[in-house]
Amino acid sequence: MLHRSDIRLYVIIPVYENWEDTLECLRMLQAQSSMQFQVIVADDGSPSPPPEPIHGFAFAEYTRNSNRGFAANCNAAAGDAIARGATHLLFLNNDTSFSFGFIECWLRTVAAMPDAVLSPIVYWFDKPSEVWYSGGDLTIWIPFFKLRREYRELTEVDIVSGCALLAPADHWRRLGGFDQRYRMYFEDVDFSLRAKAMGGRAYIVPDNDLKVRHKVSGSFRCAGTWRQQYLMISSRLIFIRTHYHGLKKCICLGLSCVHLAAILVLSLPEFPKARLLWRSIVDGFTVKTAS
To answer: Are 196 and 247 in contact (CB under 8 A)?
Structure first.
């Protein structure tokens, strides 16, 4: 147990443009029943500057980093938060919606489980009764399909969602944050598994006040299928090469070919740019994995 007054919670909101959703997220945080938190809005080098209202929230600070990818952007913000005394870090996508008791529930949960990596169940924004992602156990299907189990009670798992992920600052320091080989995608899954390998525990917390409704890929809205898929393909391959071995690795690499073929068909009439597709595959196979 940890006393509530000892919790110094920092909410890290990574952004790349998509200012409208970011402002909505900040307004929801402004309306929370508890204001025992601080926010860092971490800009991953957006092409356009933020609108002036971004700077108008007393509990939030805007920081701009060079465009190095989601993981590096989160790591920079987490480093700032820890330097300012954060005991716990809540990574929260800017295209999310949540209850007025969201922070209060996090504080209660952290007080009871101060050393755990935690995540709620994430629902579709447009279909709030349907699970978008839940987290769960590691199988050969993890690189290809989202886990969508609607947990009814606190459950220990292998994997939690980075859409709303809470980590103790001590764990974060020991693990070195998100692995920056994953420029975007799978960094949260990798983090969960590395935390478990070091003796940490991860849980899904299905509390109603922690429910998150996700608009899904707000930064890629109207950008087409393939801009997002190039990043997904390279990160998926790095993840498979890192976390699977022997027969399971062979099966997952084979399934990657089938999965890519399915995406090619489903994205028609949109086609990928051959050079960018090839680059994403090469990166997935050549980036050095941990020994």
So the answer is: no
